[in-house]
Amino acid sequence: MASSFLSKLSFWPRWFWRQLTSMRNALLLLLLLAIAAVPGSVYPQRSADPNGVAVFYDNEPELAAVLDSLQLFDVYTSVWFSAIYILLFVSLAGCVLPRTKIHYVALLAKPVQTPANLKRMPEYVTGTGNETVLDKALAVLKKRGFRVQKQEGSVSAEKGYAKETGNLLFHYALVGVLIAVGAGGGLSFSGQRVLVEGDTFVNNLASYDSFSPGALFDESQLEPFSLTLDEFDVVYDLANRANIGQPIDFIASITADLGDEIVTDEIRVNQPLAATGANVFLTGNGFAPVITVFDGEGNITFAGPVVFLPQDNNMTSLGVIKAPDAIPEQLGIIAFFYPTAEKLVSGAYTSIYPDPISPLLTMNVYTGDLGLDSGVPRNVYALDTTNMELIAGRDGKAPAIELEVGQSAELPGNMGSVRFDGLLRFASLDIAYNPGGIWVLVFALLALGSMSVSLMVPRRRVWVKVLEGGKIEYAALSRRDDPDLPNVLQDIVTEIEKES
Amino acid sequence: MTQVVLNESLSQFSLLFVSSAMAFLALALVLFSFQLVKLSTAGDEIVAGKADRLSTSERAGFVMLWVATLVLGAGVVMRGIAAGRVPWANMYEFSISGAFLILLIYLTALKIRDLRFIATFISGFALVIIFAAVSLFYVEVQTVMPALQSYWLVIHVVVAIMATGFFSVAAGLHIFYLLKASGKAKALFDRFPTLVQMERVAYRFNVVGFVLWSFTLIAGAIWAERAWHRYWGWDTKEVWTFIIWVLYAGYLHAMATRGWTGKRAAWLGLVAFLSVIFNFTIVNLFFKGLHVYSGL
Asked: Where are the alpha helices (DSSP H) in chain B?
């Protein structure tokens, strides 16, 4: 009774394990993994395109909420996607571990007993000779890399153990990739920093504009180094009329203090700077006009370069200035920068070339409450004008302010004045490090190499048998499809007969 | 990056060569189709007499196919010289280089194995690719943006094209396998290699394609690490590269799984190949991602 109950109890787990580790189900899990990956290319993903998710929410809030509850914006970290690949890897382990044991035994074992009836082998030829053929067969097959054994009246040989070794190694390497991806992701970090020409970045958490650490990241991982953006250059294609205005190179000239040495270097797209414990990548750039704002009493309430975000290919750029200390009222400015300005028929401006040939700055000026005292964090690139009044700008009391480099202008109503002092460029830098990356590469290359060996190397068995009456039988067998097998056996036979 | 002076008149010559290659391909396709018709209607005299000898139309077809390949190759090389770089930096260039490599891989493989029976598929497929390239994907020769100025453009993309070439030949074999296995047009398909032979050759091509595809994936990750500061970020193109890899891994598994070889494996290989095509067309043109080099 008890034993039958126990066997019933263990029936389902055993059944489940057998199902999971069967080739058929490994195959189904693979196909399922491929299908499960598809939605991640259809819907924007938080990891790759957080802005796309926000836009989706704005456009279709109800659908977005449904998709989000199904984790369709985080497909590759979702419960269901993870479940599939974890099951797949468990299935892989359940399949590969027993095979490793079998293969280990096979590696130590001698070639198989020569079958009684060689005529049934896929390749079979006969010749003539006597017992001495066996010694020659031993030598020839050994020279060809076969593992050989002389048996009673026959030679049994086998070759191509690397096929299974490679196959097993490939699967272990995939496990290695998975572990390296996981561990590396946990220890990694990446952060962004916008740096205007002349500015210096010091590698500590406070210096980052945004920072995303892995789950296992520790602040002490940040190695001390600093980096100054000396100059930022954009090279435009001037040689080809069809491509005028197309940038062909972005060059951030920097001076880095790496602790033990100070280096000057260039960071470009595709050419990051290798600093201590981090790589610095160039991901974006734009203009940073230097602007001074005076308030109604003549005090400087703002001075310095302002990062303007590019809006189009000709670098029409948008910037925001906030002067909360201005007297008599707080000042807010939404400004447009046109590197090469051209006036449209409508009176509005546009930029017709991305390099500053005739730069122009236009400003819409607001007075009132900037809303900075409410304690709500505010985006530095956006101005909340709900409690503000437009005093200069299109549709305002006075026209928008227009400044060329070096010019200044009074604000209406004695609210102060603004000055366009000069023009700098900024670079957006990503500072990132993933210690797992190199291990992912090592395991991926191991997987590639072992897979190639496994798929290209044939596993072959060859037998040579002496029959009574001076007849010799040669036979060969391959584990998988092996179109060269007839030729290989023929070569071996020719070689053995030549030696005789 | 030094200034590259584009040679626009040479790129026009290149376009002329690429377009003429279409005419030769079309001729080859007609001749191969004619050969298929002849085979399916011929009586026993061919079998008894000269089954292995190339008929006139087939021989003429292969001459046309070689001419098409050489003319197309000249067009591809000229495009590269005109642009001052490798000719595979946008969809048009990727397509013409891809068609050239498919033809070259097929014609080379023909020296080793008898693959004449998929000649219609190969010439037709190359024709469709070039037609799409010239009529839909064509862009004037351009300097490449800084993100693409890397020697990984040479390695990563050329291996991707080669993988696609091997997958294409295998896909042709899958199609003819499934046609033959359906049991229709027996008179014609009886003259083709056996199902087992077709399946084995298709497997060979898919194996080479799979190894190359894996290499493309790794090379792409190394490049992504340098250009985008992460080796993998589930960009739409990365997603589809992964899906294709998994599907072909599934195909290889199927070929080692009892009950899954034969028709099922052939269908799986075909689905995987359709994903390659989908990745190159729909994903490039309509999906948002970092691989925005289509230039359309």
From this structure: 8-41, 44-48, 56-83, 91-112, 119-135, 151-181, 186-189, 195-227, 236-254, 263-278, 284-286
Q: Give DSSP secondary structure letters for A336-385.
A: EEETBEEE-TTS-EEES-SS-SB-EEEEEEEEE----TTS----TT----
- The phi and psi torsions of A25 (rounded to 5 degrees) equal -80, -30
Work out the mean pLDDT of chain A and round it to a whole number.
Answer: 89
* Angle formed at CA A194 by CA A188 and CA A196, multiple of 5 degrees: 145
Query: Mutate which of B173, B228, B234, B258 to test chain A, going by most A C-beta atoms within 10 A?
Result: B234
Task: Confirm or reject contact between B151 and chain A (CB < 8 A).
Answer: no
pLDDT 10s digits, A183-231: 999 999 999 999 999 999 999 999 999 898 989 988 888 888 999 999 9
- SS (HEC) of B109-167: HHHHCCCHHHHHHHHHHHHHHHHHHHHCCCCCCCCCCHHHCCHHHHHHHHHHHHHHHHH
Which amino acid is residue A396, in one-letter code?
A: G
The Cα–Cα gap between A408 and A402 comes to: 9
Contacts A–B by Cβ distance under 8 A = 145
Interface predicted TM-score (ipTM) of this complex, two decimals:
0.90
What's the pLDDT at B49?
45
Per CB-CB distance under 8 Å, the chain B contacts of A249 are 1, 146, 149
Q: Which residue has the higher pLDDT, B103 or A312?
A: B103
Of the CA atoms within 13 Å of residue A113, those in its CB half-sphere come to 3
How far is the alpha carbon of A349 from chain B, nearest alpha carbon, in Å? 27
- Angle (CA) A380 A384 A387, round 5°: 140
DSSP code for A399: P
Cis previous bond, A377, omega within 30 = no
With an 8 Å Cβ cutoff, are A31 and B247 in contact?
A: yes
Q: What are phi and psi for residue A47, nearest 5 degrees? A: -70, -40
The DSSP letter of residue A111 is P
Could you tell me the two tokens for A79? 């419960």
Q: How would residue A270 be classed by pLDDT, with cut points 50, 70 and 90?
A: confident
Span B171-195, mean pLDDT? 90
Contact B229 A483 (CB under 8 A): no
Q: Please report how the helices B151-181 and B119-135 are oriented relative to each other, as an axis angle in degrees rounded to 10.
A: 130
CA of residue A72 relative to chain centroid, distance: 20
Q: pTM of the full predicted structure?
A: 0.88
pLDDT band at B2 (very low <50, low <70, confident <90, very high): low
Q: Residue B242: its chain A contacts at CB < 8 A?
A: 37
Instruction: Using alpha carbons, select from A173, A168, A162 the residue that is nearest to residue A457.
Output: A162
The two beta strands, A360-368 and A330-338, are: antiparallel
CA nearest B168: which of B136, B138, B127? B127
Q: Regarding predicted confidence, which is higher, B111 or B54?
A: B111
Burial of residue B63 (CB within 10 Å: 0-12, 13-18, 19+) is: middle
pLDDT band for position B48 (50/70/90)? very low
Decide if B210 and A237 are in contact by the 8 Å CB cutoff: no
Query: Token digits for B79?
Result: 């495009």
**A500 pLDDT exceeds 70?**
no
Over residues A415-425, the pLDDT tens digits come to 899 999 999 99
Name residues whose C-beta falls within 8 Å of residue A429's C-beta, 6 or more positions apart in sequence.
A192, A193, A194, A195, A201, A227, A252, A267, A280, A281, A282, A283
Question: What's the whole-number mean pLDDT along residues B235-242?
Answer: 92
Dihedral angle sign, alpha carbons of residues A214, A218, A221, A227: positive
B221/chain A closest Cα distance in angstroms: 9
pLDDT, tens digit, 9 for 90 and up, residues A61-85? 999 999 999 999 999 999 999 999 9
